[in-house]
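hey
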């Protein structure tokens, strides 16, 4: 393995969300894990930091590389790693800089149970909101270490110019994997299933994603139900290589976050924006504090999804174009920069890099 030069006496260790990204796969554009080119920001981050004299590795390589950097300090950043792993990761000349909680409590409840412990040992803890929406705030003496972070949303998937509105399909696209275990009526998983059940068979909603055409061992009955339902209706759910391939063809997309939580705004709405597709959004209750209300259609502004879709389908070509113009303005504005740069930009700023990327 080629060792980058540590000109500043610092080596950066980034602990990824899952062991699947170990051995530097978190920065690898050639791995099958790089679906929809989502690892490109990580690749660019590593490239930028190393060009500025800061070697970057996934944290699992610490033992392997530490003797190659005997006179260096190791900066440890937990980028979505489970809280218990982040707390237990220790070593000589190791400084714990920040823990970033990418997932909400619905997905990783243990991370939020351990917020106080994380704040005790890390310089900073980044999460979706700092005032306790969705979790219990730790004592004030460590709560001051909590910081809001913004999801990194770079235009990685818009490989072509978006289609003009006249060429688009007038119905709604939903790109979602088949997830059943956590589905409840009040969270995003359940709301997606409800929308699919009500509108996909009627032809108003077109579903794309992985896992719908097979039986899941962890959810055998639910997956069998949907498999038979789609089979009976003659629907085969396609698995797109790039989200932009789908969103470029549609007027509207269904963008539901996994749960409703202040500040929890992920890539979903941006994937739609990048392709000129108008999002129907549910998730962060404070979404309009971050993204202009004229760029998307908020489900919470309607009595139910049916009345929301009726509004969408009544929009004229001119009205839909107004949404797209508003999207373009937002993506070109300073307000978008915090989302475009996100935690990757924070890392580059932290090390004061001469960055051409962020």
């Amino acid at each position: 393995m080629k060792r980058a030069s540590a000109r500043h006496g610092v080596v950066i260790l980034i602990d990824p969300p899952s062991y699947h990204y170990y051995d530097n796969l978190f920065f690898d554009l050639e791995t099958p894990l790089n679906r929809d080119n989502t690892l490109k920001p990580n690749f660019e981050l590593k490239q930028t930091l190393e060009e500025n004299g800061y070697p970057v590795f996934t944290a699992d390589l610490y033992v392997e590389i530490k003797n190659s950097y005997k006179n260096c300090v190791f900066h440890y950043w937990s980028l979505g790693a489970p809280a218990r792993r982040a707390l237990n990761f220790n070593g000589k000349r190791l400084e714990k800089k920040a823990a970033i909680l990418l997932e909400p409590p619905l997905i990783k409840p243990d991370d939020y149970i351990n917020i106080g412990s994380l704040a005790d040992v890390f310089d900073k803890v980044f999460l979706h909101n700092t005032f306790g929406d969705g979790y219990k705030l730790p004592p004030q003496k460590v709560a001051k270490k909590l910081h809001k972070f913004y999801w990194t949303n770079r235009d990685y998937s818009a490989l072509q110019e978006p289609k003009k509105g006249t060429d688009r399909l007038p119905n709604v696209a939903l790109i979602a994997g088949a997830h059943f275990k956590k589905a409840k009526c009040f969270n995003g998983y359940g709301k997606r299933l409800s929308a699919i059940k009500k509108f996909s068979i009627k032809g108003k909603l077109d579903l794309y994603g992985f896992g719908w055409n097979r039986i899941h061992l962890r959810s055998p009955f639910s997956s069998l139900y949907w498999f038979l339902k789609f089979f009976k209706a003659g629907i085969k759910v396609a698995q797109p290589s790039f989200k932009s391939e789908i969103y470029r063809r549609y007027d509207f997309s269904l963008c539901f976050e996994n749960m409703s939580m202040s500040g929890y705004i992920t890539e979903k709405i941006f994937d739609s924006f990048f392709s000129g597709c108008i999002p129907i959004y549910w998730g962060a209750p404070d979404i309009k504090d971050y993204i202009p209300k004229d760029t998307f259609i908020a489900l919470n502004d309607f009595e139910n999804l049916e009345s929301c879709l009726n509004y969408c389908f009544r929009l004229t070509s001119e009205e839909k174009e107004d949404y797209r113009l508003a999207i373009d303005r937002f993506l070109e504005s300073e307000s978008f920069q915090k989302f475009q740069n996100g935690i990757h930009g924070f890392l580059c700023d932290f090390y004061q890099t001469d960055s051409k990327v962020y």
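Residues 10-149 form one domain. The mean pLDDT is 93.
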